[in-house]
Design goal:
By secondary structure, this protein is of the alpha+beta class. It folds into 3 domains: 198 residues, Aldehyde Ferredoxin Oxidoreductase,  A, domain 1 (4-Layer Sandwich), CATH 3.60.9.10; 207 residues, Orthogonal Bundle (Aldehyde Ferredoxin Oxidoreductase Protein, subunit A, domain 2); 150 residues, Orthogonal Bundle (Aldehyde Ferredoxin Oxidoreductase Protein, subunit A, domain 3). It is built from 25 helices and 17 strands. The strands form 4 sheets. It has a 6-stranded mixed sheet, sandwiched between helices. The chain is globular. The model has no long low-confidence stretch (mean pLDDT 97).
């Protein structure tokens, strides 16, 4: 039935590793990955727990389609309570690690307690044991992968690990696998670090052989791959340009947050765009982009591999960065670039690789630096405090602050606390562009009304991937809606949020939803797992997952007052572009959103909603 049927439970305090049967009723009701992992978390962890205490748990979870021949079947998620937000955290990653765990015969790994010393978990099919990681502590993600593979003399082993940022409790530290794929948001890496958990090394040779109807599964996955190949976004745009194809598009529609959301268009967008990455440099005639790359089983291949200019100021004395490595994607290019007014492509690539190497979320990092640069320009922060002159547009300041943050030095320690805490410390909390403590990604909620509502109501704080209404409001997928119009957006946001929860839980990439919808996902899950997975049932499961996450947050102390946006987005109108003069109309949308969700006016679930969803 596609699930491996087993989980690993690791008690780090006791140093024990035990196998236990997967709760198959929960698997049926929550599918896998995000949904199933979150179900285990909310059942086992007190919602009020300190995220960095031993009482918190952290879960690596695959989906039933992870490791199968379904397109993009390489995804896994890391689930915990977030130290950045205090809300539920569920961070998704691609690459090859998730498929490797599934092929080793495990659906998920639950870590509890805290190890008295640094450790890593070694998994080789049925063998699973904790190993000493004292020699790995203080090492980067890149170094950790290399050392573990050499130790076990297995270059095909897959590693999921943290860098120095996770060890140093940077609140937006990431978990990184395959060198530059990351469970990047909400500080999951900091939780791993708090438990002295450095890495999980996996080798799986079993494959995924328990498909319910192999012949039907082969047929339906073949048909769905054809849809992806023939779609303009998944078959052409993403393979050729990656997510960076959006840089000029979003800038033109006046929705590119610039200089800490002061502006909605960036004059330097063209310099850091996908087109710029494919343009020969003047210094050496080579292009920044080397090639694209795919994750396990992916037929889209949106990943980027880039090579930096060796003569650039940020890397001239750092030959370790001269080789080709994971390239810029849209969110990182925006956060490191437009958010800070920096249009130096080579500097952005350097900082992006640094984020990968030491394991931090470039979105939260870049957005926090944007707040720092505004505080500097307002005279609230000085050169002496920051350690460098830091006006908007300074590539040197961006690179310096990245080095300080990942290493836990100087002012980098304050940046590592995130924008909400940093701006509050210096008396200007309104300058943090966040929701529930998590910094916004690369779309302005004034110019695109639906995404503003999605930010405000996201269960993990400011996030585009919990309800990517950009697909509809900008790209016209599955239908075109007016980004400047708030009418109808509560229903749109709910539909996107529920569908995304189902896709995330399957073990497939959300990018498939540019071409697929639930009627495309349902027959794949039905053939692999259970023929009861109809389109209608998947929509209900997605809604169940969303409400389960919401209920956890309510118990953690979040209320309706936390479903909000910064004053800047609610009161300061867009200065340029098609949305000039617009603010986000959250006050109009939120009551209707609660109504369509089946929630009370205070943002809690109504009894009838609980009953209908089986919560």
């Amino acid at each position: 039935m596609a699930w491996a049927g087993k989980i690993l439970r690791v008690n780090l305090t006791d140093g024990t590793v035990k196998s236990e049967a997967l709760n198959m009723q929960w698997a049926r009701d929550y599918i896998g990955s995000r949904g199933l992992g979150s179900k285990y978390l909310v059942e086992e962890v007190d919602a009020k727990v300190d995220p960095l205490s031993p009482e918190n748990k952290i879960i690596w979870a695959t989906g039933p389609l992870t490791g199968t021949m379904a397109s993009t079947g390489g995804r896994y998620t890391v689930i915990t309570k977030s130290p950045l937000t205090g809300a539920i955290a569920c961070s998704n990653s691609g690459g090859y690690w998730g498929a490797e765990l599934k092929m080793a015969g495990w659906d998920m790994i639950i870590f509890e307690g805290k190890s008295p010393k640094p450790v890593y978990l070694y998994v080789n099919d049925d063998v699973a044991e904790l190993r000493d990681a004292a020699h790995l502590w203080g090492k980067s993600v890149f170094q950790t992968e290399e050392i573990i593979k050499k130790t076990h003399q297995d270059p095909l082993m897959r590693i999921s690990s943290i860098g120095k940022a996770g060890e140093n409790q940077v609140l937006f530290a990431a978990v990184v696998n395959d060198l530059h794929r990351a469970a990047g948001r909400s500080g999951v890496g900091a939780v791993a670090g708090s438990k002295n958990l450095k890495a999980i090394a996996v080798r799986g040779t079993k494959g995924v052989g328990n498909i319910r109807d192999p012949k039907a599964f082969m047929q339906v996955t073949f048909e769905k791959k054809k849809i992806l190949a023939e779609n303009a976004v998944t078959g052409q745009g993403l393979p050729a340009y990656g997510t960076q194809v959006l840089m000029n598009v979003i800038n033109e529609v006046g929705a590119l947050p610039t200089r800490n959301h002061r502006d909605v268009q960036f004059e330097g967008a063209k310099d850091i765009s996908a087109e710029a990455m494919k343009t020969p440099r003047k210094t050496d005639g080579k292009t920044h982009l080397v090639t694209n790359q795919a994750c396990f089983g992916c037929t889209i291949a949106c990943g980027r591999i880039s090579k930096i200019d060796e003569t650039h100021f940020t890397v001239v004395n750092k030959p370790e960065y001269w080789g080709a490595s994971g390239g810029l994607e849209y969110e990182a290019a925006w956060a490191l670039g437009a958010a800070n007014g920096v249009n130096d492509l080579e500097c952005l690539q350097y900082v992006n690789v640094l984020c990968n190497e030491e394991g931090i979320d470039p979105i939260s990092f870049g957005a926090t630096v944007g707040a720092v640069m505004e505080l500097y320009e307002l005279g609230v922060l000085t050169k002496e405090q920051i350690g460098i002159e830091a006006p908007f547009g300074s590539a040197k300041a961006l690179a310096f602050l990245a080095e300080e943050t990942v290493n836990g030095r100087g002012f980098g320690k304050e940046i590592g606390q995130g924008a909400k805490r940093l701006t509050a410390k210096y008396g200007r909390p309104e300058l943090a562009m966040h929701s529930k403590g998590q910094e916004f990604p690369a779309y302005d909620g004034r110019a695109i009304q639906g995404i503003g509502l999605a930010y405000a109501t996201s269960n993990r704080g400011g996030c585009h991937l919990r309800g990517y209404t950009i697909a509809s409001e900008v790209l016209g997928i599955p239908v075109k809606t007016d980004p400047t119009e708030s009418e109808g957006k509560p229903e749109l946001v709910k539909a996107f949020q529920d569908a995304t929860a189902a896709f995330d839980s399957s073990g497939l990439c959300i990018f498939t939803s540019f071409a697929w919808s639930l009627p495309d996902l349902a027959p794949q899950l039905a053939a692999a797992c259970d023929d009861g997975y109809t389109t209608e049932e998947l929509a209900k499961i997605g809604e169940r997952i969303w409400n389960m996450e919401r209920d956890f947050n309510n118990r953690a102390g979040f209320t309706a007052k936390d479903d909000t946006l910064p004053k800047r987005l609610l009161e300061e109108a867009c200065k340029t572009g098609p949305s000039k003069g617009k603010v986000n109309e959250l006050a109009k949308m939120l009551p209707k959103y609660y109504e369509v969700r089946g929630w009370n006016p205070d943002g809690t679930l109504k009894p009838e909603t609980r009953a209908r969803l089986g919560l």
